Amino acid sequence: MSFSYDPNKLTWNETHTINEEHQYCYCGEDKYLTEVSVQCCECLNWFHARCIKASIDKTIPIFTNYRFRCNFCNGPEGESFKRNQAGWKEIGGCAIANLMLQQHMTDHQASKDDPRYLSENANKLGPLNYYFNKNEHLRPFVDKNWSSLCTERSRTATWWATLGSCLYSTKDLFVAKDEHNRSASSNFCLVDPNLWNIRPGHFGTSHSRNPSKLHKESTHSHSRRVINDSETHEDISMVSHSKRQVTPLQSSEQGMTPPTHSMHSNPKNTVIALIEANSSNTEFGQSGEQNNLRHGFKYLPCQGDKLFPFMQYRNSELPPYGLRLSKEDASLSVWISGDQLTTTTEYGFSMARANCPVKEGKWFYEVFIDRGGEGKIDGKDGAHVRVGWARREGNRNSPVGSDAYSYGFRDLTGHKVHQSRLSRFGEPFKTGDVIGLYISLPPLNKVYPDYQLKCPKRRRIPILFKGDTIFEYKDYKPTNERTNEDTLTEDDGSLGYYPTVSMFRGGTCTLNFGPYFRYPPPLDPELEKKNNNNCGARKWRPMSERYMEHIAEDVLYDIIDEIELWDWMMSQKKKSLPIKRPTIVDLSDGGIMKKRKFNDIEGMSYI
Question: Distances from the Cα of 300 to the Cαs of 106, 293, 402, 462, 492, in angstroms?
């Protein structure tokens, strides 16, 4: 088979998708946007699906997850065509592109062979500015064309949540109709709406947005809700206020505008990129197996360290580094995204907590409701999300506010919840809302004047679990009613209040720990509550600032553990007593965990 023209004399555009001669394939004919054409990965020429021998799925005209070589580039082996596994950027981008083309054909009552879809009329067609919603448009389209769009990708129960997270986080590829209120439930269009530019690898590169070529963004009002928790250890009070205005994402420093960044800047420094670019290709993963509280034990990651010759092991932090949801401290039925900021579940109420607690001071974080606040659908309860704060003793297989160790805000009715008791509080919230949560904790020395900080007793054993080294330690048991016990003297360093969310049957949310917030609270929310003048320095801190403090505390506790163990071993040596160094227990075989005994030696901390 030979070309009917000289392909070396063609004049191509910058993206190598259209040539001025409008000759393609072996036949030399023009190509339609509405028909399947594939690009050779060697010569970059385009070939009609009807002209090649390889079997190609023609269900949808636009897809990019393939690798094709024409007869002339592949030598004696002839043509080769192979579909690749598509990333979520490709899936979302191709789905929107096909929907844009379908909508244009519907609006203009055009057929597939309409001349306007030829490459010679590409300039007349222009960009197609159509916006599509994840739940109303993208979810049914992807579900219907799964084999064409998601080749070799397993259909998980929460794939639609992963797709929504990708659309929300990938700002260099997808633009929301209302950028000020961007969320996973927004209506999205392609940043580059020119469908003639789409080719293999198109959705793996950043695209510049040209506002003059895009439809003017509509500005819809959006509610702002802040939960204000001013509490002692016995009571929590909340306030809320709504501001019917559209405001951009703001810095936690009042009056300070966020810095601008190029599309290629570090995602950790960008203002709105709450999720790293590579995480949009990562599916939701179930919370770790080792967090199962078998026989009352909990687990934390650790690693060997030669700087600790006696302890031998120390705490370690797992990526992604920063304040995030903790897979080690979440219900087993919870699904958490790759960046560990978005979470969902397909079962009943399940809880996920952040990896850092707060013990004193005033702190704030935001929750984007990707899906929640649904009523009954076909007689069954819809998706729900509850947000709030919880201590580590809180039940992870129940909603926030179900026990004495958590305080929650209910989506369906707007009630605040504590010990499963509802109290009127604010407005209901649903998909697309942004909930701000503020907590005010008094200094410990103010609540307990005689309180002295004591070294936490951390009785931990390093074990091997499926190739990973983790600490096993006895879980802190909740106290019963009418039990006089000073739990502060038994603080192991992990107590305090954790940002917490719980989901129900598809409820999905994304947490923003700062430092930039969409709706930051006033400088002093407690003064505003009292209708006083709100001026002066900011009184609260974003939760993101707590992470480095928490790491420093862990390092300090590890050093103290090492010193105390050294001191204890020296005392045993002086007494001529045999010293039994704890050994590593291997649980890789997945056998039943045996109950372990911890020697209660005052002032002693086991590894």
Answer: 56, 12, 25, 9, 13
The two three-digit tokens of residue 273, written as one number? 């990129």
> Do 200 and 293 belong to one domain?
no
State the Cα–Cα distance between residues 313 and 328, nearest whole angstrom. 18
DSSP string, 377-420: ETTEE--EEEEEEE-TTS-TTS-TTSSTTEEEEETTT--EEETT
Q: Distance (Å, rounded) from C-alpha 274 to C-alpha 269?
A: 10
Closest CA to 391 of 476, 324, 332: 476
d(CA 394, CA 500): 10
CATH of the domain at 138: 3.90.980.20
Does the predicted TM-score (pTM) go above 0.85? Answer: no
For residues 294 and 474, the answer to whether their CB atoms sit within 8 Å is no
Do 173 and 44 share a structural domain?
yes
Q: What is the pLDDT of residues 350-365, one digit of tens each?
A: 999 999 999 999 999 9
Helix (H, G, I), strand (E, B) or coil at 439: strand
Last residue of one domain, picked from the residues 198, 219, 240: 219
In a domain, 469, yes or no: yes
- pLDDT value at 582 more than 60: no
DSSP-derived 3-state class of residue 168:
helix
- Residue 393's nearest CA partner among 256, 252, 293, 528 is 293
